[in-house]
Amino acid sequence: MNREALILGVGATPFGRHLDRGAGDLAGQAAHEALRDAGLAPADVGAVFHATVSQKAIDGQHMIPGQVALRPHGFAGVPVVNVENACAGGATALWLAIAHVRAGLSDVALAVGVDKLVCADPAQGLAVFDGAMDVAHREETLAALAALTDPLPPELSVDGDRSVFMEIYASLARAHMQRFGTTEAHLAAVSAKNHAHSVHNPRAHFRRAFTAEEILAARRVAWPLTVPMCSPVSDGAAAAVVTRADSTRDESAVAVLSSALLSGTDRATNDAARHIGRRAALAAYEKAGIGPQDVDVAEVHDATAFGEIQQVENLGFCPIGDGGPWSASGAGALGGTVPVNPSGGLESRGHPVSATGLAQVFELVTQLRGRAGGRQVPDARIAIAENGGGLYGIEEAVAAVTILGRTR
What we know:
The chain starts with a strand and ends with a strand. A hairpin with an 8-residue loop joins strand 10 (382-389) and strand 11. The strands form 2 sheets. It has a 9-stranded mixed β-sheet. Strands 5-6 form a two-stranded antiparallel ribbon. It has 408 residues and is α/β, with parallel strands linked by helices. It is built from 14 helices and 11 strands.
């Protein structure tokens, strides 16, 4: 049995610093907002897929975080599946909810992603990311990434505390710069575009526009990345209600055209055509029966500005190696060829890890409904979300690509 699936409702909290709220509170808010949007109640849900990492790593709530978070909000008696898949946890929960409905196991499934990463001790929040790579071979992995390019000269090094994943992104960015001629100005153009988009998103962690010059002059995190080029540590939750296409005539429902979830493979460092993000995109396009030329709007995993450059290449919006010039041309801005991250992306909207993939879907459903206000992409009919997570070897450990379509 392979029933068509729809996203009937979406919900999301504002992303930011929520020191006075728990993960369960945030998850419940997003879940109930999604159900209200769908015109349903908790009793209508046949299964829940709940993604988190912080409830485990920070709160110590291992094994049953979804049950603990959601039972106080009326989700009792139904299956609750706990999902952890690094930064792709929310997209993985959605992939499972879609598969569940398509298999005919329930008429309605709920995907929820939540994380609280803002801590009184910032090091505690950053430490969550340490487990998103092969901890037994951590030093070898970092050394292999650093060896992709020539050593940094002393004047470009950064002293003090460092974020391991920003160091990883910086290594990959430098390799891309050396191989394809990508520049710091290209990175700044991506970041300036996303910060400009976020001004129109009331749920974004940051809503301030920056010029490219301000971005280049900002504090360096790991060369070539500066602070505005990197996603902040955020709290927040997002959710989506998935149902069968033959169970509703709601014109605001959005069709799931395809949903692909892949893990990485061993490949040569220069074999960009076999990058996990590229393979996931091709699988999703094939299932949906469309190509990059059909996409009207995209949300991609810009944990750094370089991440967006890499993913617009993987999604086929431009040839591999041309992501920098393509982005600098304005092709990914509102009004451009394919607007990318109209929400502001991870750099501005924020990155509560397990909520990110579902926040992307929240944005794209809003776009396809024509309800995005000042960041609306005119007449958007086909939307794509790319959400990656973790690191294994030289690329993400997991990648999810979801393609959505307007039904009216």
